[in-house]
């Protein structure tokens, strides 16, 4: 009955909801429901709690286009060129890096955002009155999508697991547990690239100062690592999106855009986050399959059949024969499949937009579109033949070894310096001199909470590229020497 009641609310006025007391008596959950408003969700302004900036007057670029440009020219984004997407980079065949993947996700995100933007501008005239265009909405999604992997450590998801496992299982990782608060320990034992990305986007070192809307669209998982009651049915609570020391930053962001909270340390998604998620889902499903076929892990015939299933009646095998090479055949099918999935996701967004504003819709768009079964089939094939292939598994094994080794060397030296001081050796001193300039290396005596220091250590190691991490590991372990 609650679902029926919500579904019949007239969302076109985009006003806050007020429920009679009798509804709150019979349906207590309705007390927490308040409809978000697009004019607030797309409010101008940049993230800087201490020195909030005013929107500029650049006649050539909107505030949201500036976000995109700032990201493109940032060091963390450039580093994605040497971070693996799925496969170790081969010498001959082209496969995607995190950089090319992010650019493609951003391109798909812009298409999704502009199409949805046209719908929203028509449905909510107040947006046009506030000088918000469909291109602005496309720019927000494009910028957020561009950064969606910016917090990923070396070696992809295996790198996330390696960092988490170090603190959970390694003696010189577990040793910090007794000195930290539970929520801080949860951050370290469950390293999350999305939360690391939020941290990097807000970092004064990177100086991005992105708009509120772009940051909120980036945050697919609006909760911390440790929550009192996580709802497994809500896609937005599957992972977490910010570390415990940035809770106030995230609250500030939600206040600026009037994003609703569930009241248990979790928030509703910004509706545009569903488009960022969809852009990523579309690209990695289709393009990982293309890479797998390029490397011979999935046959051309099987790849064509999987993509043809998405295209349905639009697939013409005779036209496909007109392309002379396999790579051209894959390219045209990939383009057509992505275009089809974009259209389907736009329609799914339109159908569920009112519930997104209420927070009652919380599923991946690619799970509810007509092609969802086809995408699920591609996912199953990818797991079996691509993600569990020897090159990928070897890369993951190397990632565990490298990141565990780097964390061990530095964590051990830091622990000896501040806690087991009788073990602090000349070797430890040399190791600590390798930490980057500006690393907070003073004032962490045993009575001081070391979380900020450990956060800085994880920043340092997770920010490395794959090659840098491997080279640095060899040097600190004595496997290789500079200039030798």
UniProtKB/TrEMBL annotation:
GO molecular function: dGTPase activity
InterPro entries reported in the protein's UniProt record: dGTP_triP_hydro_central_sf, dGTP_triphosphohydrolase_C, dGTPase, dGTPase-like, HD/PDEase_dom, HD_domain, PHydrolase_assoc_dom
UniProt keyword terms in alphabetical order: Hydrolase
One Pfam family linked to the record: HD
Keyword Lipid metabolism: no
GO BP terms in the entry: dGTP catabolic process
Domain named HD: residues: 98-285
Record NCBIfam families: dGTP_triPase
Protein's name in the database: HD domain-containing protein
